[in-house]
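Quick one before lunch.
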Amino acid sequence: MGFSQGQVLKGLGVGLVAVSAPVIRILPSQELPAWHRTESSFDVEQAALRSAISSVESDLARLSEGADETSSDIFSALSILLTDEELLEMAEGFLSDGWSAAAAFGMAVNEFAEILGGDPDFDERVKDLQDLSRRVQAHIAGIKVGLDLPLEGRYVLVADDFSPADTAAFTKAVAGVITTSGGPTSHTAIICRARSIAAVVSCPEAADLADGDLVLVDPVGDRVVYGSDVSLATKAISFIDTGAEPLISVRANIGSVEDARKADQTKADGVGLFRTELLYLSTNEQPSRAVQTAKYTEVLSAAPAGPIVVRTIDAGSDKPVPFLDMPHEENPALGVRGFRLVRDHRDFIVDQLASLAEAKRATGRDVWVMAPMVATAEEASEFASLAKAAGDFKVGIMVEVPAIVQQISELAGVVDFISVGTNDLSQYLFGADRQNSALGGLLNHWQPALIRTLAKIANDASAAAISTGVCGESASDPAFAIVLAGLGFTSVSASPTQVDAVRSALAAVSLSQAKSLAGQALAAKSPSAAKSAIVDGLARL
Ligand code: PEP
Ligand code: MG
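Model of the magnesium ion complex:
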């Protein structure tokens, strides 16, 4: 199919600056041979598997050299996954059943992946594992994998989506990226935002672009324009760090001690979301209070100065935690998850709060605690009682379930703060599974219904003298963070790679400017109108 000059392909923009450059089409890599049983001995297949694993390990080490810090971290994490003893044992089990080395590794990874399930975080781990599986199988079959990108020039890469190993191999010549699938929280979107690469994701029509086609990647306009140069771009915005203080506190989201250290390299004012369940992804036994205290103490000690908001375990649905025995549910996103675990696993929540109190004493840090997925004021009260009985914490809840939005005023005197999880709030508000990239448009944080819901939350919380933050992925978008400040939120929490960019944006406007921009976003009738209103407004300042 040919495109005409100026033809617009719609997608979801990531970033605030447009680029125009020729396309390099990245085709899906060569098909791997079908899995089969083999006549060769266990020893021969085991040797083939081990040699392929160590070759992939060396490939990762090579890619890691000279990669930026974020990518280098990804490669280290991939190496750890690749050489996991349990995974190898599982694969050897399949070898003993007569499967070939490639089949055995592929099956072992599938089994592992099934245990993990996915939310953006887990989902990424599953994708990482599957990418490693393909690499190992390709090595065994003698098939070349990995991107071979130019080092010089400026290009726009077009693909279905990119694996972590692919994005880490992006060279300086990658000026723009277009993916046909993937949503606003996909790995590609997160990396492009962190590296300031203009991107449009979830753009199915781009599948027909060919090598050499000139395209304008216009993230602010949520579009790609065929044959166009940057003069046609929707206005672009960049924020410069002037050293000024941001309008509201900018905290960091973390899930591990490594994240805490990364956040400490930024100007984050403490931590706005510590996702504790990420510590327990592959833990088969319930950790004792002593083990938990040691872990939390380590994370609290490494975290940037400022308050540390710790979320009690958010297990269930997209966040499977192996040691919690949770019943199978037909629709787990609407099931017993988050704070609802208090019904069958009260002991774990109590232990967690006690361990946090101990870690708080040991480190002297200002620890706040909050519960996930709270739906009623009654649940909020129950959590507040548990937390206050355990220690001297500031107590809060996450606002992720639309029902609690209608009860914010009843939280006065019950909680000290609320933190809005826009990832789940969007999922439940729009009835759109957050893991379904085909629904990326509904999960777009510029949706007017989400912005109006956020305005109500900020107003009602302020009237109830409850401090309000946003810790969902939307707060990692610098332009959106300005809207949040204008709506009345008193803090945002972003992924560590975005903290400094969000800070610079929030230092570039006055409170009255932010309020006027938020008013324009509130009046907009579509996501693109809301985003353009802010970008145009910022350009006029
Ligand atoms: C959210 O739902 O926005 C959130 C921050 O929590 P998580 O992404 O861990 O579900
Ligand atoms: Mg959530």
